Amino acid sequence: MDTMEKLSTLVGAAKYDVSCASSGVTRKNPGGTGNTRSFGICHSWSADGRCISLLKILLSNNCIFDCRYCANRCSNDIPRASFLPRELAELTMQFYRRNYIEGLFLSSAVEKTPDYTMEKMLQALRLLRHEYQFNGYIHVKVIPGSDPQLIYQTGLLADRMSVNIEQASEESLRLLAPQKSFPMLFSPMKQLQDQCQIYQEERKTFRNVPRFIPGGQSTQMIIGAGLDNDLTILQSTQNLYRSFGLKRVYFSAYVPVNQDSNLPAVASAPPLLREHRLYQSDWLLRFYHFGAEELLDENHTNLDMDLDPKTSWALRHPEFFPLEINRASYEELLRVPGIGPKSAARILSQRRMAAVSSDEIKKLGVVFKRAQFFITCKGIYASNRAFDPQSIRRILTPKMQPEQMTLF
Amino acid sequence: MDYLYDESFDGLLTCIYHHYYQVAATGIYPCASYQAQLMVASSEVKTDLILASRVYKAIENKISASALLLVYQAFLSALPGKENLILNYLLLGFKLGSKVNLLLTHPAVYPLHKIAAQVSREQHRFLGLLRFADTGGFLYAACAPDHHILPLIADHFADRLAGEKWIIHDRRRKLAAIYNGQIPAAANASGQSPWALVDFPYTDELALPQEEKLWQELWQHYFREISIGSRHNPRLQAQFLPHRYRPHLSEFQTLPQRE
Q: Is B55's pLDDT higher than 70?
């Protein structure tokens, strides 16, 4: 297989891993090639609308595991390829100097044993950092089951590492990935978290402590492959943030590639709207100070598909609204549908000089179409009726497009 | 009195100086495109670096550093009439001090924030959208941005590609930022930039070596393979990557025939 074919095979095998940010780390070029910017840089956008920031690739797609949902599982008959560490390093450097990418996102199928694979990945990283003097962004996937020493050595060279949790509940994981288990996935996550804390502590005393994954760790869940409902997924997400101090939890809508009795049919569409609602809920957990128990509970176990989670919450809690925006606190403003952290901060800035009037609200970045039902501005409410959740829901729910009927 | 300046930032600041210390300005316009008015006198202002630096420091100290950045970003934009926006903003700013940036919806502040945000957004986009090609001796990148963002992105590449010689060519304005592979020791000490902005009137396409075409082809393959077919969404892609930026991106050019 030549480089072009190997690239196509290994990139095609890596594309379902969505955790591909290049943000969180600032590093100036110490002499060599490359730097990182903490805001992250998108270099292009693929035909599915997703950002391309890193060279996302598998070192090898020759896997010994047999996870039901994965295109690379050992029971599938597909072309198998592997890169040598030097081939991968050369590819990364040449793409990087042409400004095609911010850095490398390296994952791999489990080739021979987890330790063998992790060792190969570490070799590629060493080549890049020490020989090629590469100072750009590197995100490495941890192979479940590999030795803690290898994970530690890799963490000294990488900017971010992640372990894919794949499913929200242990039952789903055992059903779909029989060779993986929660203890096997949690133990490297705990190791990464502990090591980051050790670095923070030692940095207070010693200046030249070697950096360990300055971008932190993240994880990924597949949506729509198992039978977990949104409540389980959100509770699991919240627990992951709290227990392991993750930077992000990613959700990847399951794209059916394999025929299996436990999985959706191969012809079915990936659950994109559900994935979108889960990402909206994830944002509410991280930036809007919501708790998972506020968004979903035993009576509502799945997210509303018609409305975003915040509007859905607001309509279930009419006691908070309408809110007077000239008197509300930052926390209260964040609860209004259509107002986010930036608009809330701008409202507070403006309020220090003058009261906000209704024709100025749109200029502050508030989505007035949604927010108008939930706020009063200098005492004036947008509608002449009282706050009524039912009619507001009717107005905000997207209308069904009429279908053209056929005669036959 | 209308002031006419030479379209440089120092020239604009000199006009501001004259507004306060000579005749009040009714507007500031670029010399080249000004049409003489019947009722309003106009005078050409000669750029004075010393006066300009006094105004520069005054903005930084009396208003704020962020106000200075906003004014500079607005200046780099392609908006006709940007000079008057800047003038009105600075008049209000010198009166109110740093509080001027809290008045987000004021008619003198809001348009300036909007145009500065557009320039800032385009600068951020081009950090990613610029594509270099290895010509054998140096790296060459061409772009056609809406606003004059070359001074804002050159520092980033001087740091990132510190060991390489590169040229970033703004085809629309016929300018280029060039860097010759070494940060001169003098530049480090005096705080000057290690790259230079020069006139670049060449319009022909650069001939690229065969090896470069191979790397471009690899990138095109990567670009095609990374997309998930069942999530195909050209509208979303166009939202993030407008069509006007695509001509200079190699992944959107036609794939060459393989032998």
A: yes
pLDDT tens digits, B162-191: 999 999 999 999 999 999 887 665 556 566
Separation CA B123–CA B10 (nearest Å): 22
Span A237-252, pLDDT tens digits: 999 999 999 999 999 9
User: Could you tell me if B138 lies within 8 Å of chain A, comparing CB atoms?
Assistant: no
Q: pTM of the prediction? A: 0.93
Question: What is the spatial distance between Cα A14 and Cα A12, in angstroms, rounded to a whole number?
Answer: 6
B143: its two tokens: 């772009």
Q: Taking CB atoms and an 8 Å cutoff, what residues of chain B touch A48?
A: 227-229, 231-233, 236-237
Contacts of B221 in chain A (CB under 8 A): 4, 7-8, 11
Put simply, the answer to whether A269 touches B230 (Cβ < 8 Å) is: yes
A33/B163 touch (CB, cutoff 8 Å), yes or no: yes
- Contact residues on chain B for A21, CB-CB shorter than 8 A: none
Using CA coordinates, name the residue in chain A closest to B235.
Answer: A49
Give the one of B104, B105, B241 whose C-beta lies nearest to A44's C-beta: B241
CA A92 to the chain's CA centroid: 23
Whether residue A322 has a cis bond before it, omega within 30° of 0 = yes
Please provide the DSSP assignment of A165-194 as one string. -BSSSHHHHHHH-TT--HHHHHHHHHHHHH
Tell me, what's the pLDDT at B205? 86
The ipTM, to two decimals, is 0.92
Cα(A241)–Cα(A249) distance, integer angstroms: 8
